[in-house]
Amino acid sequence: MSGILEILGKIYQSAIFVYGLVLLLVYALLAIFSRLAVRQYTRKNSLHQRDLLSSSPLAPGITILAPAFNEGMTIISNVRSLLTLNYPRYEIVLINDGSTDNTMEQLITEFKMVEVAYAYNVKIRTQPVRKIFKSTDPAYASLIVIDKVNGKSKADAVNAGINLATFNYFVCTDVDCILDKDTLLELILPVMQEENKRVIAVGATLRIANSCEFDEGVMTRMRPPRQLLPRFQEVEYIRSFVLGKMGWSYINCVPNVSGGLGLFDKEVATRCGGYDHSSFGEDMELLTRMCRYAHDNEIDYAIRYIPKTLCWTEAPATLKIFNRQRTRWARGLAQLMYSHFHMFMNPRYGKMGLIIFPFNFFFELLAPLVEFSGIIVYIVLAVTGNINWPYALLLLLFVYLYSVMITTISIVWDQLSFRYYKSWWEVAYLCMTPFMEFLIYHPLIVLYSLRGYYYFLTGKKSTWGNMQRQGFGKKKIK
Amino acid sequence: MFDIQLPAFLEPVINTFRYAPLVIQLAMIFIVIAAVGTLLAYFSILRNRYLGNRRDKRLAKLLPKIDNLIIDEVLTHPEAETVPADQVVLNLDAFQELPLDKKWARSALTERIIHFRRNVRGNMGLLLRSLYMQLELDKDAMKKMKSGHWEKKVQALTEFTNMDMSVADVTILPLTNSRNRELRAAARHAYIKLSKNEPFKFFDVVTEPLLMWDQVELLRIISTTEDIAIPNFARWVTYSSNKSVVSFCLKLIVHYNQLPAVPAVIKLLDTKDHYLRADAINCLGKLQVPDVEDKLVSIYSTQPLHCQIEILKAIGRISSGRHIDFLKLEFLHSTDFDLRKSAAKSLVKNDWIAKQVIEELMATATPENLRILKHCMNPLIKY
Amino acid sequence: MFIHIVYGTNAATMSKILLIEDDEIMPKIVARILPSSEYELDHVSNGKEAFEKLESTQYGYDLIITDIMMPYANGFEILSKVKSQPRPIPVIIVSNAGNEDMVMEGFKLGADDFLKKPIIPAELMIRVKRLLMKNK
């Protein structure tokens, strides 16, 4: 009996060793790739005069899709800021997803909207659209408002918008996100500068809005969040976008374009059926399906990321909402892995099947389970007195310092190219955060992820009230 | 390996390391690497912010000075608008108060001059250029041209293009075939802008696709160069085997409203590439060539969807009123939504003669078709 | 003030012009083109400031020169608001927009003139004078 246990222990130990080593290497590689990708970006940036595009008749048209649910507090200033984006050819499709507050009334009076008979083709099925509005004031000619029956998901709202979109590219965002005024110029550039591939999606860095200053929907002062929980998230976002996504982008292996802001090729997105309203991680799910579609139809595609922060979003500031958000994300991931599992290690799907999917499976999906099991084994060993404490502590110290280093490096990449924040004090403040992240923030995420997996397995019919949907109205819960 | 004399306090560490299993040894090495890496990271943040802030401060001091000098000495020059720029004598001494012996200051001044030139042209623009030359600011760019680094060459070429500085063909031409894409593109743009001989020569030889971005830059350069001889772009529509060149020339034909190019564009309708064909149809529509309508209608039924849509749009743009029945039939009988919508739109564009037909259709249409018609007739809806 | 009295020009006869432009150099150029002895030039750099300025002066300008793409409110919004006043102020759009649609949009909203950047100083001068004359 003890012999078997010992063998199992050995196997477990070596498995964990290999697992850790691979993860370590991947992060080291990502750090290098992301540096190269960020350099490539800044170089292009300095050589090309991007405002050329804002005055060019050749600028491709872009449709902005902004779903709104009970955003009465901020809707007007946010639509205003969308109306002043720096781009010559775009339309804004605002989807009022059955708000129960005065969102719709405010829009109608402020922008002089009237109902119009708008003809569109339902390519993706959604909850019924009640009315479509356009402004009688030509100054707001680029604005279209859809009033639809609440579909209980962002996916359904955005799909309704896709059906109406005029242009070949659409940018998906949340109405409560604050966008940089050059967002459209920046996002379309990778599409226009790609040599041989068809760029089907482009993403950009997101950041936390909590302590930034805004004036009528325009960002006036960037600041790291003062509260600890949002600050953890800011650091996490920098790592995940500037180091993670940029690194993946360098080898054309981007796993996800965040729902907060992304530009998509409308044809591919429509052909593969748009967003899935039953998914808990609809952004990643769509991208996976778009890649699959591209592979199935032999489209030589690329997905690109840019390191510049173009979008600020309000992060959950209380544990309760944060818990909901992460549980939901984890559930979405599990769902995705389950429903697309045939892509796992399937050479037919190229990098998607051989790199992105396995990575996500082992190091995103399994990571919380592995960590959790590790802790249990640790405790068991500790109780039975089988731990070599100096070694264990050394290993722990190593993991701790390595994670701090990776996060700090991502802050460096970010700082080297953009010098965000006003003073170096604020950066120092941010740099302190990774030291606590490992001890406070990370365990929380593991816990919430496990909860998400549990819900996925038990198929808990969650009572997703509107308030709980990520991106919608979370501000108002505070 | 560890025979070197080490401080005593490190001894236990060394001993632990020596007798530890491989994993622990690795961990220990990485602990050191991670700690050093993190410290280096902090250092590079500090350094970068310091240098950046210093640059900002310097510029904040310098730029107002530059602006005032340019305004006082160039823009407000009594002869700025009356005397040809090359005969105006500028007071260069005033600029000596700038630290022009420093490279960063020179490049800041150059950038500022370019910025001014982006806002103002005519004699004042030329005067700004002459300031740039008289202060010998082009020397830096010349040096960059000779540098082995492609990035510097691109910067120099862009600067010359912006400043309208003539560069010998022999300098630019080899670069138009460079193996580096960015450099190649920049050299071509410079060639179009600066070459006195055949600015459009590279259209003949380029084999790789022109990116969308290249086209944006090219169009800007072609349309802002004042003394450029615009050729008949039909030449490349007919002879070029590079599809992106053909497609770009179609856009240029529209931009310059080159009616003499029409026969070449019509010939392109026979091409096998249906993307190019769609571009050709689009071009003919925008040029509003009435004679081509019959041909478009006759080939309609054999075209793929996106070409059909372009044909319907073209008929709307030409608006000769001779194919109302065709549009009506398409609107009534097509099964595809986009075709019906395009047909309806074109009918509405023909409404100077099709009023009655539209009214009749409104009275009899299915609910969906009625909505399409209303959509197309509503002036609030753009697309 | 003294000079004004001597030469018989005063604030009442000077034309008041509002320049709305977010580029930092353009205002300096315009200020140079339109001499301060003949024009009273106010400059704001975004839509919000423009509205504040217009409201605080009860739309008391003789001419507005505006860009199209600016933060807070774009040129179209400003145009639309200005042109819906009982006494519409003439507006010149100065922009680098090469997109015909945008220019058309501007005229649809009642813009009186359009100048493409880079501008020729004499041209701006002539158009400003012409519009001011017409509305005198």
Automatic annotation (TrEMBL), chain A:
The positions making up the signal sequence are: none
The record lists the membrane-crossing segments as 16-38, 353-383, 389-413, 425-450
Per the record's keyword annotation, is Glycosyltransferase included, yes or no?
A: yes
Q: Which InterPro entries match?
A: Nucleotide-diphossugar_trans (IPR029044)
GO MF annotations for this entry? glycosyltransferase activity
The organism's place on the tree of life at top rank:
Bacteria
Q: Which Pfam families does this UniProt record tie to the protein?
A: Glyco_tranf_2_3 (PF13641)
Swiss-Prot/TrEMBL keywords: Glycosyltransferase, Membrane, Transferase, Transmembrane, Transmembrane helix
UniProt KW S-adenosyl-L-methionine keyword? no
Family according to the record: Belongs to the glycosyltransferase 2 family.
Q: Which PANTHER family match?
A: POLY-BETA-1,6-N-ACETYL-D-GLUCOSAMINE SYNTHASE
Protein name per its UniProtKB record: Cellulose synthase/poly-beta-1,6-N-acetylglucosamine synthase-like glycosyltransferase
Instruction: Give the organism the record lists.
Output: Chitinophaga polysaccharea
UniProtKB/TrEMBL annotation, chain B:
- The protein, known as: HEAT repeat protein
Protein's organism: Chitinophaga polysaccharea
Report TM segments.
20-45
Q: Which UniProt keywords apply?
A: Membrane, Transmembrane, Transmembrane helix
Q: Is Signal included in the keywords of this UniProt record?
A: no
Keyword Transmembrane helix present in the record's keywords: the answer is yes
Automatic annotation (TrEMBL), chain C:
Question: What are the TM regions of this chain, as residue ranges?
Answer: none
Q: Which lineage?
A: Bacteria, Pseudomonadati, Bacteroidota, Chitinophagia, Chitinophagales
- Top-level taxon in the UniProt lineage: Bacteria
InterPro entries the record matches: Bact_response_regulator (IPR050595), CheY-like_superfamily (IPR011006), Sig_transdc_resp-reg_receiver (IPR001789)
One of its Pfam families is Response_reg
Q: Which GO terms describe its biological process?
A: phosphorelay signal transduction system
Q: Does the keyword Phosphoprotein apply?
A: yes
The entry's keywords = Phosphoprotein
The name under which this protein is listed is Response regulator receiver domain-containing protein
PTM annotation (4-aspartylphosphate): residues: 67
List, for all copies, the residue spans of the domain called Response regulatory. 16-132
Q: Which organism is it from?
A: Chitinophaga polysaccharea
Per the record's keyword annotation, is Ribosomal protein included, yes or no?
no
